[in-house]
Amino acid sequence: MKLRIATLAAAIALAGVAAPAIVSAQEKTVTVGGAPMYPSKTIVENAVNSKDHTTLVAAVKAAGLVDTLSGKGPFTVFAPTNAAFAKLPAGTVDTLVKPENKKTLTGILTYHVVAGKLNASDIAAQIKAGGGKATLKTVAGGSLTAMMEGDKLVLTDAKGGKSTVTIGDVNQSNGVIHVVDTVLMPS
Questions:
Q1: Which element (helix H / strand E) includes 153?
Q2: Taking the alpha carbons of 117, 119, 123, 125 in that order, is the dihedral positive or negative?
Q3: Least packed by Cβ within 10 Å: which of 83, 94, 150, 173?
Q4: Number of domains in the chain
Q5: What share of the chain is helix, strand, coil (3-state, %, to 5)?
Q6: Contact of 29 with 39, CB cutoff 8 Å
Q7: Boundaries of each FAS1 domain copy (predicted)?
Q8: DSSP secondary-structure letter at 142?
């Protein structure tokens, strides 16, 4: 089977046609929002395909962070779902994506990003070493407190709000995504 795929890919390449779908089909993926997340693609390239992250993608575009999150990284992104954004007071998202609120939106979104690639096991090791808690510095300049509640990784934001990682270790070419169920808020 691998030989047939390699032969087909070579034939397509000789014909001058790109074969990313064939290469991607061989990658180990995690499904998020009904779409496979390919480790060879960037955070943004994958996120745009998740039906559970349309609000996040729109917010990233409104904040002008597409190029940053498409960059080399690596980044650890705690990615709130549409349902997480829906927990915010009515009208909050509509207000945040207005051009005059770009600075506030950027602050909230970058509060969900940690420099470097931290898989769940890396965070769990920090929690164990920290006596049950770990502090994660965000690129916004704030901190998140990480802890385990049973077998769940939970983050506490600057305002005391809690968000649970529902899908962890979604590897990307420029980092890792951990899907979270609540929007994290900076101070």
A1: strand 152-156
A2: negative
A3: 150
A4: 1
A5: 40, 25, 35
A6: yes
A7: 40-184
A8: -
Question: What's the pLDDT at 28?
Answer: 85
* pLDDT tens digits along 38-94: 999 999 999 999 999 999 999 999 999 999 999 999 999 999 999 999 999 999 999
Residue in this structure with the two tokens 């480790």, named with its chain if needed: 39
3-state SS class at 180: strand
pTM of the shown model = 0.85
pLDDT in tens, 99-125: 999 999 999 999 999 999 999 999 999
Give phi and psi for 153, each to the nearest 5: -85, 125
- In percent, the amount of the chain with pLDDT more than 70 equals 86
DSSP at 89: P
> Is the per-residue pLDDT at 25 higher than 60?
no
Please give the Cα distance from 123 to 155 (Å, whole number): 11
> Residue 21 domain-assigned?
no
Give the tokens for residue 105: 């939106």
Whether 34 is in a domain gets the answer: yes
| CA 182/CA 164 separation, integer angstroms | 7
Beta bridge partners of 134: 146
Instruction: Give the side-chain half-sphere CA count within 13 A for 107.
Output: 11
Phi then psi for residue 87, to 5 deg, are -75, -20
CATH (domain of 114): 2.30.180.10
